[in-house]
Amino acid sequence: MVDVHCHLNFKAFEEDCNDVIKRAKKEGVEIIINTGTSLETSARAVELANQYDNLYAIVGIHPHHADKLEDGWEEKIRKIAQSKKVIGIGEIGLDYYSYKSNGIVDPKIQKEVFLTQIQIAYELNLPLQIHNRHAGEDIIEILKENKDKLHKIPGMFHCFAGALDVLSQALDLGFYIGFDGNITYKGLAPGETVSLPDLCRNTPIERILTETDAPFLSPEPKRGGRNEPSYVIITGGKIAEIKAISQKEVDLKTTQNAKTVFNI
Ligand code: NI
Predict the structure, then answer these.
(1) Mean pLDDT of the chain
(2) What is the distance between the alpha carbons of residues 43 and 190, in angstroms, rounded to a whole number?
(3) What is the spatial distance between Cα 31 and Cα 53, in angstroms, rounded to a whole number?
(4) CATH number of domain containing 113
(5) How far is ligand 1, taken at its centre, from the CA of residue 3, in Å?
(6) How many domains does the chain have?
(7) What's the pLDDT score for residue 233?
(8) Phi and psi, residue 183, nearest 5°
(9) Are 127 and 261 in contact (CB under 8 A)?
(10) What is the rounded distance in angstroms from the CA atom of residue 62 to the CA atom of residue 161?
């Protein structure tokens, strides 16, 4: 299996990153992709990828950091993105959800930073890894307006949530769809109207990617604790159950999908 989106580059893994990577490999996680959210964590994702054969990096500025950027950030991220093991630009996008730890960043600034990074991905021939929370319609609109800057395989929506209509438009644009450990949770997340299993049912297996978003979103029965890439197997099991196919088939298809999207 592949974990296409986690954050071993975050502090939560400072102490035992090596053990976590080894454990994932032993459990059958073939490839781990660490995603940056800022210049610092993007650089750290590259540093990690350079230390392990089966690790890759996706680099970019998360919408939460869009209003904390200094002049010249574009050139810095462009430079980091040219490292050999960088396979995508992310996590980039829009977030209109008000968190306890982070209010809503001015949508105008979020959009500017998103657009700049779509341009960088276009120039560097890299797919996008999109973060969307309660902003699906605006994201789809931006992607449609910038269709000429999307590659043949444009990338993926990470940790997909939202309306069925947003899902179908993302699929029409050619995007792949990532599901995480929260697909095992009962009920709906705040403000959502469609359950994750229903979104999964409406996504062809040929377009599904598996991810953890570790250290966040631990699947049941690990919920509440630190998530890690080896738990992507639990998410694979849940997808198998939803799709009524074998876990082996989920493993084979989603691994192939990840290799296709990220050209690895
Ligand atoms: Ni993330």
Answers:
(1) 97
(2) 32
(3) 9
(4) 3.20.20.140
(5) 12
(6) 1
(7) 98
(8) -65, -15
(9) yes
(10) 17
Distance CA 66, CA 237 (A): 35
DSSP state of 227: -
Tokens for 150, please give them.
């999307």
For the residues 202-223, what does the mean pLDDT come to? Answer: 98
pLDDT at res. 90: 98
Cβ-in-10-Å burial (0-12, 13-18, 19+) of 91 comes to: buried
- Among all chains, which residue has been given the structure tokens 């490839």? 31
Q: Does position 101 have pLDDT exceeding 90, yes or no? A: no
How far does the centroid of ligand 1 lie from the alpha carbon of residue 146, in Å?
A: 24
As a whole number of angstroms, the distance between CA 233 and CA 28 comes to 8
Residue 54 gets which letter from DSSP? T
240 CA from centroid of ligand 1 (Å): 23
Q: 169-189 as b/e, with b when 16 or more CB fall inside 10 Å? A: bbbeebbbbbbbbbbbbeeee
Which range of residues forms the domain containing residue 72? 2-262
Residue 103: pLDDT above 90? no
Is the CB of residue 156 less than 8 Å from the CB of residue 177?
Answer: yes
246 CA from centroid of ligand 1 (Å): 27
